[in-house]
Amino acid sequence: MLFGCIIAAVILVLGITAGAAGCNAEVFDGNSVKNQDNFFLRFTRMSKTDAHIINAEAGDVISVELEIEKGRVDIVIGAEDDESIYFGNDVDSGKFELPVSAAGQYKVTVEARGAAGEIAVQRLPNAAEE
After folding, report:
1. Is the backbone of residue 104 left (phi > 0), alpha (psi -120 to 50) or beta?
2. Once rounded to an integer, what is the mean pLDDT over residues 80-98?
């Protein structure tokens, strides 16, 4: 009898652990484009974290366009010294620009849970450079 109770407890623990692991599975149904100037995500289902580095010069602008259809999306854009120039929790659809004051690598991190939509982050060169 004791052996049967131990087996039942082990099966219960394994079932709970497997179920919890399934809830945290990373999912991405969509496509992405990443290069030195751009980070584009278009997704019908996203539950994961994705990141990309954009190289920018002083005077550039980082343009951000969000079209969030559902779910939760958090975005952080930070310079290589880990100073964030933008931090958004549970962002809504919208468009904005971030001026770049110092040349460097800017990491864009997108964390989505049960989300669908489009995200476009692009470096717009300083007009004086062109």
Report:
1. left
2. 91
